[in-house]
Amino acid sequence: MSKADPSKPPVSLKCAVLTISDTRNAGNDTSGDYLSQSLAEAGHACVRRDICAGNLYQIRKVISDWIADDGIQVILTNGGTGFSHDKSTAAAILPLLDQAITGFGELFRHLSFQEIGSSMLQSDAFAGSANNTLIFCMPGSTGACKTAWEGIIREQLDSTHRPCNFGSLYHA
């Protein structure tokens, strides 16, 4: 984490949004729409957006390509983190991380508990970084994306948020 420097202008980050789903498409991807719009409203650029089936290797390919792309600083994924036999987001992405942001999943589940009670146990939301790219993985429901964005991610991508944030890592 980096300390906010009030003398520097806010950083506009280059972000990518990946929806992981076997049923969503461009016409009904409300969670991807929400995340893309929220990034724009916060002054960031959504430079890539895609929908990927829940296949472990397809997810890993998209995320690996985006991690290797110097034009992407933040990746937001939604979907594939619930408690089911076919969830694959964690299995696909965790091995790619250089560092985990452990508190993200913990705080997300705390915030979710306040909204949906013990059902929050079924979320494997997590975050980390790889090749200087921040990666936040959250459930696919638009409500869960809103909880993660409003409760955690928006402030942490804001380079002016004090006392510290992830956005400041990208100041020149």
TrEMBL record:
SUPFAM superfamilies named in the record: Molybdenum cofactor biosynthesis proteins
Keywords, alphabetical: Molybdenum cofactor biosynthesis
InterPro entries tied to this protein: MoaB (IPR012245), MoaB/Mog-like_dom_sf (IPR036425), MoaB/Mog_dom (IPR001453), MoaB_proteobac (IPR013484)
Name of one Pfam family that matches: MoCF_biosynth
A cellular-component GO term for this protein: cytosol
Pathway: Cofactor biosynthesis; molybdopterin biosynthesis
Any single biological process term in GO: Mo-molybdopterin cofactor biosynthetic process
CDD domains, alphabetized: MogA_MoaB
Domain MoaB/Mog: 16-160
Record flagged with keyword Endoplasmic reticulum: no
Family: Belongs to the MoaB/Mog family.
Function statement: May be involved in the biosynthesis of molybdopterin.
PANTHER family, per database record: MOLYBDENUM COFACTOR BIOSYNTHESIS PROTEIN B
NCBIfam families found in the cross-reference section: moaB_proteo (TIGR02667), molyb_syn (TIGR00177)
Annotated protein name in UniProt: Molybdenum cofactor biosynthesis protein B
Naturally occurring in which organism (per UniProt): Parapusillimonas granuli
